[in-house]
From TrEMBL:
Gene behind this protein: Mcur1
TM ranges: 160-179
Lineage: Eukaryota, Metazoa, Chordata, Craniata, Vertebrata
Keywords: Coiled coil, Membrane, Mitochondrion, Transmembrane, Transmembrane helix
One Gene Ontology biological process: calcium import into the mitochondrion
Name this protein carries in UniProt: MCUR1 regulator
Family annotation (Gene3D superfamilies): 1.20.5.340
Length: 180
């Protein structure tokens, strides 16, 4: 070990300041022991360059292993995410197909209901047309019956009128003959 101060110069300095040679040497040797003990403690916490390089290489290899593990984990996680994404896509396609089937069913039901309603309306119109036609026929029949009755009453009135005129003429001729 190297000491970074001159021990002989320190002994001389102590002697100049009133210490004996023996006292100065004891103080310097105590200082050297204290410094050596302190340096031993410091060196225990320190590493040499070789140890530091070895530790650095170990750390770097450990980091390399962790990187590889991370890449493998990332790839496996990525493939898991990709497979999960594919599952979700398939589920979405199935749901989309189900929705489209439901929409088709609803459209078909609506068309069927609309066509049924149209046929009901047409049937109702046909029934109304038949009822109207029957009513028109009844009215026409009644009008024809009334015309026939009117004509027959007209003829009856003409007969009665003719009979009455002939009766009056007969009575008038009878009085005429009686007076003449």
């Amino acid at each position: 070990r190297r000491l970074y101060f001159d021990t002989h110069a320190l002994v001389c300095l102590l002697e100049e300041n009133g210490f004996t040679t023996q006292q100065s040497e004891v103080i310097v040797s105590a200082l050297v022991k204290i410094m050596n003990t302190n340096l031993d403690m410091v060196y225990q916490d320190m590493v040499t360059k070789v140890q530091q390089e070895i530790a650095l290489q170990q750390v770097m290899s450990h980091i390399g292993g962790v990187k590889k593990d991370m890449i493998i984990l990332e790839k496996s996680e990525f493939s898991a995410l990709r497979s999960e994404n594919e599952k979700i896509k398939l589920e979405l396609q199935q749901i989309k197909k189900q929705v489209m089937d439901e929409i088709t069913k609803v459209r078909a039901d609506n068309k069927l209901n609309l066509n049924l309603e149209k046929s009901r309306v047409k049937e109702l119109h046909a029934q109304q047309d038949r009822a109207l036609t029957q009513t028109d026929r009844k009215i026409d029949t009644e009008v024809a019956d009334l015309k026939t009755m009117l004509e027959s009453h007209k003829l009856d009135n003409i007969k009665y009128l003719a009979g009455s005129v002939f009766t009056c003429l007969t009575v008038a001729l009878g009085f005429y003959r009686l007076w003449i």
